[in-house]
Specification:
Blueprint lengths: L17 H14 L16 E12 L2 E9 L7 E6 L6 E3 L13 E3 L4 E7 L4 E7 L8 E2 L6 E2 L11 E11 L2 E9 L5 H4 E10 L6 E5 L14 E9 L2 E8 L3 E10 L4 E9 L10 E8 L5 E7 L8 E2 L1 E2 L3 E5 L5 H6 L2 E5 L7 E12 L3 E9 L2 E9 L5 E8 L7 E6 L5 H7 L8 E7 L15 E6 L6 E8 L2 E6 L3 E6 L9 E7 L3 E11 L7
Length: 523
C-alpha cells in the first residue's frame, strides 16, 4: 500500500464510519512512509495538515491528543490520537463531525472530559463533553454557544472576542478564558495580548469577570494571545502558555486571584525567538499529568512545501519553576524546560565519547556518530571559547549542516555591572540554532537563526540534549532553555556530527549518541 496516495478532497468525513476512518489513516500513513522528512519519533498527522495543538489530557489510563486537522474542507475538524506513554501514538477517528470550530482546549474532570471550541465565526465559545473510555462519543452542549462576550465589562470599549479558549475547574467553579483583539483587522497590526475571563458553576450560565491580566510592557504592540492554556505550576504560581501571531510561542508566569479573576504577571518569556511560521514552534497545549507534572506540547510549522502532509508535534516538555541559582538565573530563565523521561525508552545503540579537546578555531568530526533520528547528550566545558557547539545533520564536506552554538559573553561587562553586580561579567550567554546551511534544497525558505538567552553559573558546563528527527531539531540546554527548528537536508549523506570551538579551545567532557527507534510501524 506504500504507493497509494489519499485524495483528501474526495473524502466526506461525515459520511464514513469510525472503522473506515481508522483504515483510511493507516493507508495514508503507509503512503507517506518513503517521505524522508516524516519524523520517526515525533507525532505527525496521518495526512493533510496538523494546524494548532487543541487539547492534551489524561483519561482512563491513556493520554489523548487533539489537534486541528486541516483537510481541504477544513472547518475546524479535530484530529485525535491516543497513547499510553506520551511516546507511541495511535490514530483515532476525527472528533464527531458536528463538532467543528476554531482553537480551544480540553479539560478532564473526574467523570467527563470537556472540549472548548470557537464558533459563530470564532466570536463565541461552544462546549462538548465525552465520558466513554476512548473519548469518541462527544455530545455538544445543548445551549451552544455557551458564551458570547458582552464586554466591555473591563472598560475596553474596542476589544472584541476572537474565540480561542481554555476551560478549567478549580474546586467547584469553572473558568473560561477567551482571546481578544483590541481592534478588528489584520492580526499583526491589531492584536493585543488580552484575555477575557468568565466563571460558571454549571457550564451553562457564565459571568464575565473582565480582563484576566494587564500585559504592561511584556509584549510588543500588535501581539495577541491565541491558543491560551492556563496551568498551575506549583508554589502558588500559574503558567499561561500562548501563541502570538506576530512573535509566536510565549508564556507568562505569575499569581492568580481566582476570586477577582485576575492574573498578576511576574515573568514573561518566549519559546520562539526567530520568525513566525518559518519552521518554528507554534500553538501550545498543556495539562497536569497524574504524576503532577506540568506538561506542554506545541505544533511545529513547516519551512518548505510538503506533499501529502505538513506540521508535526514537539516532544512533550516538563515545565516547572526555576527556583535554584542566583537572581540572574531566575530573571533570564525563570522557567525550567526539560524533556520528559518517557522518550528515553526509544534509545538504542549508544556510542560514547569522553575527554575530547577541541582546539581553538577548529572542528572535530566525531567518528561513528551519525544518523537522522538520534538523541545526543553532551556535557561541554566551553572554557574561554567565545563560541562552542555541535554541528548535526552534517554532510562530509559540510555542504549541509545545522549548527548548535553557545555564544559566550553575549552581554557586555557594562550591562552586568549595572543590572547584575557580577564581577565576572560572563554569566549571560546565548544559545542558538542556525539552519542557514541546513539544506541545499531551493524550496526551503530563508530563516534567520533561532537564538535565546541562557544563563550559566561561573564555571558551569553546558549540558545539551539534542533531539534530531529527520526534519526537526529540538535542543534542551541545562534545563533552562529549549530551541526548536525545522531543517530539510537534501543529501543522503547529511548524517554526521562534529564539535567546534572559536576564539579559544574547549573540551567535550562527555557525549553519548543514541539511535532513536521509530514509533510508527510503517517507518
Amino acid at each position: 500500500m506504500s504507493g497509494d496516495t489519499v485524495d483528501w478532497k474526495t473524502i466526506d468525513f461525515g459520511a464514513i464510519d469510525y472503522e473506515a476512518q481508522t483504515d483510511l489513516f493507516r493507508r495514508a500513513r503507509e503512503s507517506l512512509a518513503n517521505d524522508r522528512f516524516r519524523p520517526a519519533y515525533h507525532f505527525s498527522p496521518p495526512g493533510a495538515s496538523l494546524h494548532d495543538a487543541a487539547g492534551l489530557c489524561w483519561w482512563k489510563g491513556n493520554y489523548h491528543l487533539f489537534y486541528l486537522f486541516a483537510t481541504p474542507d477544513f472547518g475546524g475538524a479535530r484530529g485525535h490520537a491516543v497513547s499510553s506513554d506520551l511516546v507511541h501514538w495511535r490514530d483515532l477517528p476525527l472528533v464527531r463531525h458536528t463538532i467543528r470550530g476554531g482553537t480551544g482546549q480540553v479539560w478532564a474532570d473526574d467523570d467527563r472530559v470537556i472540549m472548548g471550541y470557537a464558533t459563530h465565526k470564532h466570536k463565541a465559545v461552544s462546549l462538548a463533553t465525552a465520558s466513554d473510555p476512548l473519548l469518541q462519543e462527544w455530545v455538544p452542549h445543548p445551549q451552544n454557544p455557551v458564551y458570547t462576550s458582552a464586554l466591555p465589562a473591563n472598560g475596553d470599549q474596542k476589544s472584541i472576542p476572537v474565540g480561542d479558549n481554555y476551560v478549567w475547574r478549580e474546586d467547584d467553579v469553572y473558568y473560561l478564558t477567551i482571546r481578544r483583539f483590541r481592534e478588528p483587522g489584520l492580526m499583526a497590526l491589531a492584536g493585543t495580548t488580552a484575555l477575557e475571563i468568565c466563571r460558571s458553576t454549571d457550564l451553562e450560565s457564565w459571568q464575565s469577570m473582565g480582563k484576566l491580566f494587564d500585559d504592561g510592557h511584556h509584549t510588543e504592540p500588535g501581539e495577541d494571545c491565541g491558543c491560551n492554556n492556563f496551568l498551575p505550576i506549583g508554589s502558588g504560581k500559574h503558567l499561561l502558555l500562548f501563541f502570538s501571531h506576530k512573535r509566536s510561542a510565549q508564556y507568562y508566569l505569575g499569581t492568580f486571584d481566582r476570586e477577582a479573576g485576575r492574573f498578576s504577571i511576574e515573568h514573561h518569556g518566549r519559546m520562539n525567538y526567530g520568525p513566525v511560521e518559518r519552521g518554528s514552534l507554534h500553538a501550545p497545549s498543556g495539562f497536569i499529568d497524574p504524576a503532577g507534572r506540568c506538561i506542554g506540547i506545541w505544533n511545529i510549522m513547516e519551512n518548505r512545501p510538503q506533499e501529502g502532509w505538513d506540521q508535526l508535534v514537539s516532544l512533550p516538555r516538563h515545565l516547572s519553576l526555576n527556583e535554584d541559582g542566583s537572581d540572574e538565573c531566575r530573571y533570564l530563565n525563570p522557567l525550567r524546560i526539560e524533556p520528559i523521561a518517557e522518550p528515553e525508552a526509544l534509545r538504542s545503540k549508544p556510542i560514547s565519547i569522553e575527554a575530547v579537546t577541541v582546539a581553538a578555531n577548529s572542528e572535530t568530526i566525531l567518528p561513528g556518530v551519525e544518523g537522522t533520528s538520534m538523541e545526543l547528550e553532551a556535557t561541554i566545558d566551553p572554557m574561554s571559547a567565545r563560541e562552542v557547539g555541535i554541528n548535526v545533520l552534517r554532510s562530509p564536506g559540510a555542504e549541509e549542516q545545522t549548527t548548535v552554538t553557545l555564544f559566550q559573553h553575549s552581554r557586555g561587562w557594562h550591562f552586568q555591572r549595572l543590572v547584575f553586580p557580577n564581577p565576572h561579567g560572563s554569566a549571560v550567554r546565548e544559545l542558538g540554532i542556525d539552519v542557514s546551511r541546513g539544506s541545499l534544497d531551493p524550496a526551503v525558505r530563508a530563516r534567520s537563526p533561532e537564538i535565546g538567552p541562557l544563563y550559566l553559573e561561573e564555571g558551569e558546563p553546558l549540558k545539551l540534549r539534542i533531539f534530531i528527527d529527520r526534519s526537526v531539531v529540538e535542543v534542551f540546554a541545562n534545563g533552562r532553555q529549549c530551541l526548536t527548528v525545522r531543517v530539510y537536508p537534501s543529501r543522503e549523506d547529511s548524517r554526521g556530527v562534529s564539535v567546534f570551538a572559536r576564539g579559544s579551545e574547549a573540551k567535550v567532557i562527555s557525549l553519548t549518541a543514541y539511535h532513536m527507534q521509530s514509533i510508527w510501524p510503517e517507518l
